[in-house]
Every structure is written in C-alpha cells, then in structure tokens.
C-alpha cells in the first residue's frame, strides 16, 4: 500500500510518496510560483569564487546563477 502526502504552505508545496510502512520512495517540493526549493538540499558543485570580505563562496550547481 502506498501513501501520498501533500502539503501546501505560504512558502510553497511538497508531495511525498511512501510505501505505507514509512519508507520514503519519492519527495518533490516547489517554492512560490513553481520555483524549485534549493534550501536544505545537497548539491554537487564547483567553487567559482571565494569572497573573504563576506566569508562566502560562490558555487556553480548547474543553475543560471551561482549559489
């Protein structure tokens, strides 16, 4: 038996599919205006630039802009 869990909040929406015993099979989330949520996910990327003044690094994760 599969269970579909769907939530909708001001910040976006999420859908999860489980096998009924609690094992997660799929998870999809979108932010406002159907933009994918990037916060909290793990990405493989390449460091493009390090800015010591703001203690930050700009990473290429395959999006239009650096992260």
Can you walk me through this structure?
This protein is an all-beta fold. The protein folds into 2 domains: 1-36, no CATH class; 40-67, no CATH class. It has no helices and 5 strands. The protein has strands at 3-9, 12-18, 24-31, 46-51, 56-60. The chain has a 3-stranded antiparallel β-sheet with strand order 1-2-3, with no helix packed on it. The chain has a two-stranded antiparallel sheet with strand order 4-5. A hairpin with a 4-residue loop joins strand 4 (46-51) and strand 5 (56-60). The N and C termini lie far apart (39 Å). The mean pLDDT is 74.
Summarize the structure.
With 67 residues, this protein is an all-beta fold.
Note the total helix count.
0
Q: List segments where confidence is low: pLDDT < 50 over at least 5 consecutive residues.
A: none
Largest sheet: 3 strands, antiparallel
Could you give the count of β-strands?
5
Number of domains: 2
In terms of DSSP E residues, the strand content is over 45%
Coarse shape:
elongated
What features would you highlight for this structure?
single chain, three-stranded antiparallel β-sheet, mainly beta, 5 strands, 67 residues, elongated
SSE inventory with pairings:
Elements: E1 3-9, E2 12-18, E3 24-31, E4 46-51, E5 56-60
Antiparallel strand pairs: 1-2, 2-3, 4-5
